């Protein structure tokens, strides 16, 4: 039991070390609680509004949060794929905790899930305990997690479910029942507003499946596990996916999608310290100011 508990406690310690500045802030005047204070970004304000709209609709009016009357004269709410409703964790927090603190607890829960999932995935690959902790730390404390969640982009949190999705997908090659867990986690990411994580996690699973086509046993396992995974994801996530997709089909985006970057330009944006923010001709007409951060 001690051997099983030690890695779990180590993952909790990694998460606390990374998340502590969002809970307690220390300075020359001492330490103070900041768990109820959001970051001062437009994304933070946007997702705080989304959280509050869902909470007020349910608690004060007894209605499902289908519409947001507080923004731009009224906009869709439930049909916005970024809204964290009806994520199960929302229902555990919205009635008891203020929005800013609830979002930080939401982050903490996903940090813990990511750390434990990365440790488990590494352990199944033969990693020893220090290597498992390194995997957990790299998953939770990497720059993209701090950048997106610290900047208020709540939709990024479901990315931390990816290690468990991969772990269940690989287990399903021998025991197909685990495909239901992988599909369920992908559906959970959709319910939590993972508009970018869901398609990228699906691509990760498909890429992993492609790499396993070389083995006869893996090929046979994929014939059953992959349909189960995709089918359970579609069924469990349908409560969010079907309305959103129907709304997008009825209200198509008519703006031309001719703006693009080549693979070489994407590579340049990530590896060069200074580069032009626009990449003509795809961004012609914009200023040629340079920046040391990757283009958004």
Notes on the protein architecture:
With 296 residues, the protein is mainly alpha-helical. It has one domain (2-18, 37-250). Helix content is 58%, strand content 5%. It is built from 12 helices and 6 strands. It has a two-stranded antiparallel ribbon. A hairpin with a 2-residue loop joins strand 1 and strand 2. Helix 8 (178-191) packs parallel to helix 10. The protein is globular.
DSSP, total strands: 6
Largest sheet features: 2 strands, antiparallel
Structural class comes to: mainly alpha
Tell me the fraction of residues in β-strands, as a range. Answer: 5-15%
Number of helices: 12
Helix content: 55-70%
The figure for the number of domains is 1
Give the overall pLDDT as a whole number.
88
List its salient traits.
disordered C terminus, two-stranded antiparallel sheet, 6 strands, 296 residues, globular
Compile the SSE list and pairings.
Elements: H1 2-19, E1 24-27, E2 30-33, H2 42-59, E3 67-68, E4 75-76, H3 88-93, H4 99-124, H5 129-140, H6 143-150, H7 162-172, H8 178-191, H9 197-211, H10 216-236, H11 238-250, H12 263-271, E5 275-276, E6 290-291
Antiparallel strand pairs: 1-2, 3-4, 5-6
How would you briefly describe this protein structure?
With 296 residues, the protein is mainly alpha-helical. Helix content is 58%, strand content 5%. It has a two-stranded antiparallel ribbon. Strands 3-4 form a two-stranded antiparallel ribbon.
């Amino acid at each position: 039991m001690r051997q099983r508990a030690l890695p779990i406690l180590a993952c909790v310690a990694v998460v606390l070390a990374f998340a502590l500045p969002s809970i307690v802030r220390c300075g020359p005047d001492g330490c103070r609680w900041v768990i109820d204070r959001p970051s001062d970004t437009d994304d933070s304000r946007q997702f705080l509004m989304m959280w509050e709209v869902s909470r007020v609709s349910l608690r004060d009016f007894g209605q499902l949060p289908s519409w947001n009357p507080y923004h731009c004269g009224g906009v869709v709410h439930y049909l916005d794929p970024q809204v964290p409703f009806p994520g199960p964790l929302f229902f555990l927090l919205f009635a008891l905790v203020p929005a800013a603190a609830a979002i930080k607890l939401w982050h903490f829960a996903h940090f813990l899930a990511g750390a434990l999932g990365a440790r488990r995935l590494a352990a199944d690959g033969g990693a020893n305990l220090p290597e498992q902790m390194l995997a957990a730390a790299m998953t939770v404390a990497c720059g993209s997690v701090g950048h997106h969640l610290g900047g208020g982009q709540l939709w990024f949190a479901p990315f931390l479910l990816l290690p468990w999705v991969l772990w269940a997908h690989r287990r399903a090659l021998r025991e197909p029942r685990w495909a239901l867990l992988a599909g369920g986690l992908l559906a959970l990411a959709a319910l939590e507003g993972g508009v970018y994580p869901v398609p990228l996690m699906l691509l990760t699973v498909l890429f992993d499946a492609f790499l396993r086509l070389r083995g006869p046993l893996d090929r046979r396992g994929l014939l059953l596990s992959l349909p189960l995974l995709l089918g359970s994801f579609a069924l469990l996530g349908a409560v969010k996916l079907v309305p959103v997709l129907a709304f997008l089909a009825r209200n198509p985006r008519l703006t031309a999608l001719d703006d693009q970057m080549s693979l070489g330009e994407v590579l340049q944006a990530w590896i060069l310290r200074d580069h032009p923010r626009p990449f003509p001709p795809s961004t012609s007409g914009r200023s040629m100011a340079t920046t040391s951060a990757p283009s958004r």
